[in-house]
Amino acid sequence: MKSIMLAIILIVSPLWPLGENPSLNAPFIIVNKQSNQLAFVNEGKVQEIYPVATGATEELTPNGIHTIIVKAINPYYRKKDIPGGDPKNPLGSRWIGFNAKETDGRMYGIHGTNQPDSIGKRISAGCIRMINEHVEKLYDQVPIGTKVWILSSNEDFESLAREAGAIE
Prior knowledge:
Layout: H1 2-12, E1 28-32, E2 37-42, E3 45-51, E4 54-55, E5 64-73, E6 94-98, E7 108-111, E8 122-124, E9 128-129, H2 132-141, E10 147-151, H3 157-164
């Protein structure tokens, strides 16, 4: 009896299978490291798919469901003391930071790049790079609190979004 009750609780729980499920009408981001693509899901459908660059190794870009907790226009690059807006700044024009590995949204993020040739490759130190025009569009559409699901998969984005509960 206890195992039946536990199974029912797990199945109806909002925490199964991927953590807190996104709302059908809420923005949701899926990053597929296998294809180096990012899908923006909103209003119950996949709205846009963008090419991205991900970590040079599989482990560098952390898998899982994360939450956007920081956003910045023309972010400052602390490692090399490069101000935002500087053409030498590798973070490009936008920073969308998420809380991977218990960080504060300042270590892992979706950001622009001053190296557009890197898009489509596994090359970053762990962040998700986008073409500046693309990240600017995404930045305007995702509020703080948006969920970001990072994984490696052979599935298409519509199937993944359905699995996450972001579309029917």
